[in-house]
Every structure is written in structure tokens, then in C-alpha cells.
Design goal:
The chain is elongated. The protein is an alpha+beta fold and about 375 residues long. A hairpin with a 4-residue loop joins strand 8 (about 95-100) and strand 9. The protein is built from six helices and 27 strands. The protein has a nine-stranded antiparallel β-sheet with strand order 6-2-3-4-18-17-16-10-14. The protein has a nine-stranded antiparallel β-sheet with strand order 15-11-12-13-27-26-25-19-23. Strands 5-1-7-8-9 form a five-stranded antiparallel β-sheet. The chain folds into three domains: about 1-115, DNA Polymerase III, Chain A, domain 2, CATH 3.10.150.10; about 125-245, DNA Polymerase III, subunit A, domain 2 (DNA Polymerase III, Chain A, domain 2); about 250-365, DNA Polymerase III, Chain A, domain 2 (Roll), CATH 3.10.150.10.
Amino acid sequence: MKIIILKSNLKVGLDAVGRSIGTAANLPVLNTVLIRAENNQIKLSATNLELALTKTVFGKIIEEGGLAVPYAVLSNMVNNISTERVNLEAKGGNLLVKTDNYEASIQGIDRKEFPIIPPVEDRSERIEIEGSVLRDALIKTVIAAEVSDLRPEISGVLFSIEPSELKIVATDSFRLAEATVSGKQIKNTFKKGIQITIPLKAAQELSRVIEEKERIAFSSNETQALFESENLELVTRVIEGRFPDYQAIVPKDTETEVTVDREDLINGLKLAGSFSGKNSEVSFKIKDKKILEISASDSSIGKNKYVIPVKVNGLDTEIAFNWQYLLDGIKNEPSKDVVLGINGEEKPTLIRSSERTPYFYILMPIKP
């Protein structure tokens, strides 16, 4: 292998695959990035055996070939060299790196030793979606997911595919987020509805590496899921077990509906939250059907109170939340107002935009 590549392009590729690098001490090849020059393409790949990410970057190929090299060494080198043009050559099991004023030799590993997760072979059934739409839906939902050893079926993000829409859902049993993408925004060739849950790590990485203007294709089989675009390929295992029937807990009606300015609510949560102590508990008190009082106290810190004018439909009430969880549910939805559908201290609160966007967030209150 012998290629000439711009530092900026090499850095883009390394940054894209870097967080899928494995850490197994007994399998050092997982700490490497595989560089391949073939079919007029330069590809960088990394894997932790559950997730594999490949990024295609631009450069000039002089000789085809490939070599796996320690990711940390190459990444640190690229971040610190000063010139833009970089020459890479695989020679005698090493990667020779040369610039105008720098050269190095990195000990490599034969590309044949690099583990490749088997890709999804049958891609006849798939959905295609704009990168910006998928990334937005993922960012709004991954916040509600958490890895659970006791309930592995919720340790990821659900892709529920129907002919008319795509729903992306995540929950940690205390909160839940759902984003819906309409059928007009996707191209769907799945013959019937399907539900696939991908691991949280894969969903987080996907939201990070997607480019807004690229089109992402998703296909899967019983064990693997594949997300691919012109310059990106992400292969991940799928989570076994059925995602819970979450629709049963989505509130259909609300006792108290509170409409509040989103920025005011964010400010109030952050102010009260600084007095909430380790349990992150803040109290909400609806007064006179027009005032929301947000307060928090801690014996080692003190107490505070923030008052916001609101519109209330229903009963005055008092309720407590984990303020950080509540903030997660409202900060990524750029609407002017937020609607809180409250159903007492023991039932979930429904949080949505006043503009009826295809996204909602459910949060369990903190019981007194």
C-alpha cells in the first residue's frame, strides 16, 4: 500500500472510527485501525467486535494494499504534524509516515488478522433516510437509554419500521423518548413491519458520524444491522429479546396541562438544580392556575425558588422530578413553548412541544 492523503482527510477518517476502537488487552488488533487502499477508495476501519465502523476518505492511491496500525499512535501523530500532505506506505509490516518535515515508522499488524464483523448480505429490504433527519431523531431519543444487565432488551434504541412511518424509541424504565419519521421522509422496501433494537453505543456513534446531507440506508438480519452511505458503513449486532410494549404507558389524558416558555423552564431547572444536592430533585408547584414555582433545597447547600408565569388547564398540583432528566427531554426540541401533561405523583408525565411535533418524552416523577 502506498497513498498520498491530506492531513485533514486522514483526521476526519480517524475521528469517525476512533470511538469504536476495542480495548481488549489480550487481543491487541482491536486497538488498531485498518487502512485499506483498494478499488480507488481509501477506507479506515475499527471494531470492538460488537460494532464495526468504516469511513471512506479521499486521497491518491499509488499502490493498493492494507495494514492495521495502533490507532492511538497514528491519531496522536496526525493531530500534531504541521504539514497538510501526508505520505503513507506499508513496507515490511510497518507503516511509513512521511511529511515535508517529519517521518516515522509504525509497527503494524497484517490486515488478515483484523477481525471483520460479517456484513448484512441481503439488502433488498431496507429503508433510506436523510442523514439530518435520522441524526435529529437519534439525538432526541438516545438520552433516554441506559445499558441494563438486568433488562438487556432496553439497553439500546428501537427502530420500529412500518410502511407509513419509522419510530425511534428508547427507555431506561424511568423515562422514555419517541421520535417519529413520517413515510414521506423515508424510502421503505420492507415487506412487513419490523422491530430491531440496536445497542446504545451503536446508536450514539451513528448520531455522531452521520453527515447531514448524506442519505443513510438501513438493512438488517436476525443478528446484524447495517447503516451505510456513500462514505460510511456501520455494522452492529442487534439486541436479542423483545422491546417492551411501551405504548401502554403513554398517557392518553392528563389531569393538569401546563404550557411554559421553554427557555424560562430551562433557566428555572438549572437555577433550582444547583440546590438539589445528590438526588437531583426539584419540586414543581402549580399555583392559582397561572404560576409555576420551581424550588429545591439541600441541608448542606441551602434553598431557592424560581417563579414562572404559565398557562394551566386543569388542577393545581405539586410534583417532583429529577431536574437533569427533565432538562434532557426539553433541551433538544427547539420550540418556544413546552407542554407538561401531569397525572399526579405516581403516573408518568408527558412532555411535548406546544407545536405538536412528532416527538414526545415521558418522565416518571420522584415519589414523596
